[in-house]
Structure to design on (1228 residues):
């Protein structure tokens, strides 16, 4: 399969648009679809084909879905004109959305039944990494389907990790990864609530942490956001992170794995939503530890547009 | 002050012995003291002076204490022949033990009252880093006392971070750091309990994490220990970590900072002690999430020496 | 409406069978339906009419559904021959199952649209209370529908409490009540793990508690089960309680209410399921605190039939 | 031993004063001591003897201590003129304060060494119950010492429960009881945050609960306080309850018993203190669940004197 490979991209949010751009830059023939058509315009201007329907986006060798949640994916996949009804026999559905383990298992079966191939390929990275082809791709599925899809994955990511031959394992990996990141955020929130009252400077605190044992991107990125209380614009909205923690807990339910820190994170995200602040970056849950330690809430300081 | 500076080291466990070695290698005149004298022998063989009493170890320009807990420090500092009674006016007590914020504040006052100087200089790093002078030193106290002590800190650490002019802030920093590490361990325990049941290989899981967003020493070190369930020999015993979480919670109490993840960690360490396994490395708390997910306990597998 | 009122009962588990008996004893004309027909036999022997289909059970003035979970209720209500398609205009669907708030709101709308009346009337009490007409009935819905249904509710319960004119409020009440009971169980489990190690007799402990501040049925019933570790036969299976905690958390999600104790209970029920013991009475979660305190698990003692 | 028995009461807060009154009403010869002497005046006016020192209060057959915390008890017991130095051989120290298990064990040893007898006799009940002799007394110690003290315990309580022959077991019982009550408060706080948003009236909610499964004094008393948000005047201050949860956790530490709900309660009490509201009744922690669900804090409503 050459770079003449034809691929659809369904879902043109920040992540999906970046992925489409990276695919085009790598020379693929890209068909784009989004429910609200305006988001497709910049890509069409750069040479993407515009699909008027989901079905039209499924006329290539593969289609990548990058949508907000389980419902959006299920809706695009099912029914007349959906991905399942439209994709050619042998073509590949590459699911890059962060979806639940049970939906992924369900899609695996339904695509197999339709004679199509299905791999899960969720990604780590923010929108800028998607646009520059620097995502980390976590994938799982049959070896031959992944091999076929590899040129596409190479275009969107700096590296691909094959974690299992069961597609849903990649989704479980992604959910566990977001759980680990949210844990880092919460723990930094608690730690900074503590050192704040001990008269240590927050930025110095993060500098020392990341200069010593915690020199990872996750501490650098979120440590800075937390220290500077910079939660807008949202790189990843708290409402989406809340969904992912819910999916991680649901996976824990199904697999019989208690997840006490995830339970605590769940309550944090619910509390943030209760304050009308879940449009902020997910690192905003770090503020809740400070509120519990007696800091005033943002809306009480007159400075927020939150409800 | 030249390398002819004379310094005592009280407490010759793995960390204290390493520190004494590093000081000698840097050319300082080192007097060592340990309650059980055998531990001093290797250092004396290398040229350290042996102090028969705490008081003798306090006859230099500075004394470093590196002891197991608050009680041990308080005992060495107080009473006839203690550090307070023995140190010269103007000499410096460098407290490198991981002790509580309130004891550190107390020592600050008592040394000031005695005309002595006190800085807190807890460290991050395992025993091998102490022996090779590669610790990270977190210090706080008066600027001039730190400046005086700097050559000593340079000898034991690869870098010194001055975080405050209040000594106890360095202790708070250290406790918060151990809290962050324990959180990483717990979250890896929960995540691995989950991916274990999703048929993802544990070592592969850690490899992918540390190749992407989690490329920090803390994830590399503890991710490997957790993935391989390698908890002996203990680099840092769970019983000591339990003490540190207790001290972090006590600091939270005093400063009015709720710390929900620390509370959860507290319960984990208590549970590990209840299994008679707190002699293991603190990364062993990661197994508790697996037990809760239905794995058998080690002692039930017939393979452990635990009670 | 007289005692000649005709009422269907769908779902003949322990609770539904007891309810049907109580209705018959009060003189109502009762039609019973259960998916597996054998369960209807004892009631038919006592004079109940046997419905071969859901639809036949809906030919009276009212129908009571008492089913295991949301899916079972939705299945019975929807589709050809379902309650919605079968019930006469003006007739009442009395939903006594412990279902989620969102399903209840959904049913309210769908029945209104069909010209039928819908009230929620979940109950507190164990099977023996259902059989003897001694349940506590928590109901919500339009005043006139409740007035019409009152003779039926009087037959099954010792008292009816009207808590709102929105049906789903009764379901929320019921879920919150089960949450409170599960909290009592968990707290007794923790307290008994503690006093066990303090050499206080467990039965004496419960006797003193219930003779003083805790003299409520909930402490008497569950205190005894917990003290005696008597978890079989299950009065209310842990697997069902797990479902209810999940529904309470889902209600909290929807209403933006963090529920930290419910989160903790969730993890306990998942852990019990992981041990293969969720067929036991829900009071069995009390053992988990003891396990965490170092007690051996039942299956390790060779005495349980659990997996 | 007759009613002519002579007894000291040390500590004349609300509880101690009530106890002294009840003892006088029963005909005992009562000597009272309080650090600030004014609190003794009403009792002296009713016929109590005033002790100018702790030592003078120890000249009878028994002395009851009813003090705020471990420090206060330790101070009164130790040193020249303390209870240990003053009590006659064979006389009894009845410790009714809510103190920690380790202090109680310590006092047991020290009194035995001094040839005195020691029993723990903490109580359940609010100040009005102390004044009317209606407390519940939980006691532990040697059988003969309890028999000797029984007339005194009969005077202050409506019922005495002997729970062990190890005095500290009574303290453990008391701490576990306060833990159970605080759990009830927290669970009611969470449940009411939920039903508030489901449009169920809070008072109706409590009425239904206490009319059904939760008909115990603890739900009646605290359910009403929580429903009506009536936290002043404090029957039992949150700051004291915080101390008791801390002591329960310390007992769990020592006995190797993880207590996850107690950990959660700990964080609640710390948060209340951080708001400057720990002078309120301990039932005020119930508000924190409502705050997390988006309610405004009292001080933001302009109605509180809190900091």
């Amino acid at each position: 399969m050459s770079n003449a490979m034809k691929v659809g991209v369904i879902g043109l949010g920040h992540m999906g648009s970046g992925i489409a751009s990276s695919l085009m830059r790598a020379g693929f023939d890209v068909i784009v679809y989004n429910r609200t058509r305006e988001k497709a315009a910049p890509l069409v201007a750069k040479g993407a084909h515009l699909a008027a329907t989901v079905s039209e986006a499924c006329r290539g060798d593969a289609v990548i879905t990058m949508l907000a949640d389980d419902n959006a994916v299920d809706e695009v996949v099912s029914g007349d004109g959906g991905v399942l009804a439209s994709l050619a026999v042998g073509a590949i559905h590459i699911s890059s959305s962060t979806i639940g383990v049970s939906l992924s298992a369900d899609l695996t079966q339904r695509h197999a039944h339709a004679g199509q191939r299905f791999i899960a390929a969720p990604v780590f990275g923010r929108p800028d990494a998607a646009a520059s082809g620097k995502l980390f791709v976590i994938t799982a599925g049959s070896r031959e389907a992944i091999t076929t899809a590899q040129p596409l994955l190479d275009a969107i990511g700096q590296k691909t990790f094959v974690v299992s031959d069961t597609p849903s394992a990649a989704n479980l990996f992604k959910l566990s990864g977001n759980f680990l990141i949210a844990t880092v955020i919460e723990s930094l929130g608690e730690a900074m609530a503590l050192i704040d009252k001990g008269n240590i400077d927050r930025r110095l605190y993060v500098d020392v942490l990341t200069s010593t044992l915690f020199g990872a991107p996750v501490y650098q990125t979120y440590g800075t956001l937390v220290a500077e209380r910079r939660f807008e614009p949202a790189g990843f909205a708290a409402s989406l992170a809340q969904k992912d923690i819910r999916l991680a807990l649901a996976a824990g339910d199904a697999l019989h794995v208690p997840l006490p820190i995830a339970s605590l994170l769940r309550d944090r995200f619910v509390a943030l939503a209760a304050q009308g602040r879940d449009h902020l970056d997910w690192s905003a849950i770090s503020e809740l530890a400070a509120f519990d330690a007696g800091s005033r809430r943002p809306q009480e300081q007159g400075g927020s547009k939150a409800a």
Notes: The first strand of chain A starts at residue 6 and ends at 10. Chain A has two domains: 6-165, 172-301.
